[in-house]
Amino acid sequence: MNTALPEHDHHDDHIHEHGPLAELVTVRDWLRYAVTRFNRGRVFFGHGCNDAYDEAVWLILATLNLPLDRLEPFLDACITAEERDELYTRINRRVDERVPTAYLVNEAWLGEFRFYVDERVIVPRSFFAELLEDALAPWVADPEAIGSALDLCTGSGCLAVLMAHAFPQANIVAADLSADALAVAHRNVCDYGLQTRIELVRSDVFSGLDGRRFDLIVCNPPYVTAEAMARLPAEYLHEPQMALGAGEDGLDVVRRLLTESKQHLNPGGILAVEIGHNRSIVEQAFPDLPLVWLSTQGGDDVVFVLRDEDIP
User: Fold this and answer.
1) 185 in Cβ contact with 252 (< 8 Å)
2) CA of 65: how far to CAs of 87, 107, 192, 204, in Å?
């Protein structure tokens, strides 16, 4: 029997124990290493963090199953050999393959809400999260009065979950064209125990919602223009492209929304749409619509609202 192969495998399992990575002992060491790798590798931050330090903290603490808001007590904790291999692999994939940290650790955050994500859905990063903290006030005068709501292009189901918390009396439909996305959304709905309040529907915009009407429709649709799609950083290429691109001017889905939404709104209902930084494109395409742009941390040009009576 050839015993050389098992010995070689054993050596591979512990290849980092005697190499340069053996010098990385504590969380503090690995944090410094990750920040350096991210900066030297010029990775792009756009999926939940704004800089190398915050992303390194997130990747390391999530990999070690430590609380994300408690870095300090763990800085001098030692990393085991098994954990070292996993950290090394994930840091390398973040830099060399440009995989967003959200996919590496299978989580994304909107405010205090954690969601499971993988490459079947885009990484949640909606400005609706902050607007729903106040239940879309003052446009929604009484959150308890919202009886039915639609999260169109739901992806991971994140906004549907936030809407369920913001509007406690609402039955919510979360709709998406992608069966893969709906599978992820189902996991998140179940994680929050909202199966009885959130209904998942496969629908190409409104195609699967014939005859159904809602007090509130929220949509964070694909809105990236063809020009912008061609210039996306490599990190975004790991996301489903159908959830990003929306034709030459980025309005393929928005046009259908504005054409078809009136027949799916109850009297006095509200349509709220996130459109990135494409305000000028939207206003040029729909000059007669009385669009109201909401103020968010991303600026005053990313989310517009319309009332039922203002939609032709």
Assistant:
1) no
2) 12, 12, 20, 37
**What's the CA gap between 263 and 267, in Å, rounded?**
10
Strand partners for 198: 172
pLDDT value at position 151?
A: 97
> CA 175, CA 219: separation in Å to the nearest integer?
10
Distance CA 158, CA 189 (A): 8
The alpha carbon dihedral of 19, 25, 30, 32 has a sign of: negative
DSSP code, position 234: G
Report residue 108 as tokens. 């994304």
Q: In whole angstroms, give the CA distance from residue 51 to residue 39.
A: 9
Q: For position 20, what pLDDT does the model report?
A: 61
Strands 148-152 and 171-176, bridge-based pairing? parallel
Amino acid at 94: R
Set out the domains of the chain in order of their start, with CATH numbers. 4-105 (1.10.8), 118-310 (3.40.50.150)
* Positions in the chain short of pLDDT 70: 1-21, 242, 245, 247-248
β-pair type (265-274, 303-307):
antiparallel
- The amino acid sitting at 72 is E
Q: Indicate whether this model's pTM tops 0.85.
A: yes
pLDDT for 242 equals 67
Distance CA 159, CA 302 (A): 16
Q: How many CA atoms within 13 Å lie on the side-chain side of 110? A: 24
What is the pLDDT at residue 229? 76
In angstroms, what CA-CA distances link 136 with 132, 143, 152, 266, 272?
A: 5, 8, 16, 17, 9
Q: Is 24 within 8 Å of 81 (Cβ atoms)?
A: no
